[in-house]
What we know:
Blueprint: H1 14-17, E1 20-22, E2 36-38, E3 43-44, H2 54-58, H3 61-66, E4 68-69, H4 81-89, E5 104-105, E6 108-109, E7 111-116, H5 118-121, H6 125-137, H7 143-151, E8 157-163, E9 170-176
Antiparallel strand pairs: 1-2, 3-4, 5-6, 7-8, 8-9
Amino acid sequence: MSVDLPFFRYHPDPLASGSISASAESCACCGRSTGWIYTATFYSAHEVSGRFCPWCIADGSAADRFEGEFTDSYGLDGVSDDVLHEVTRRTPGFHAWQDPHWLVHCHDAGAFVGEFGYTELAEHPEALDQLRADLRMDGCHDESQVERLLTHLGDGMTAMLFRCTDCGVHLAYADAS
Length: 177
């Protein structure tokens, strides 16, 4: 099907991240088979049999109908209620080993870019510097160990990369198995 997917400000390429994929599966919310289906997390106290099409995510109907969220609000401190609502209830989440969370910069949620290793992150030194600082805060004070962990991203640990929707700076956090 050659239908344009809805645009998600905070997850601009859910196909590349694997959160949405081509599928003949029908949406658990609207019942239509749109050619695309959401494959990542959805948190709800209700039983949901099936997955959602991108349009039911974008318009909020899936979150409303099943009283759920596509991502936790953890990490979204300091954003407006509208941004919080858009990220948690109208934006596709993403796959992660640990509970995925959103990063914030310039008082707005970042746009999720994807899961990356060291080579890709080397193009974004500010994101690598943030990971270094996070590893030090987590108790890793040996600089050679910090660099070894970073250069081996992809071996049991990866980086979730975001881009600030205001200033364009890249942010990342480490996700480990």
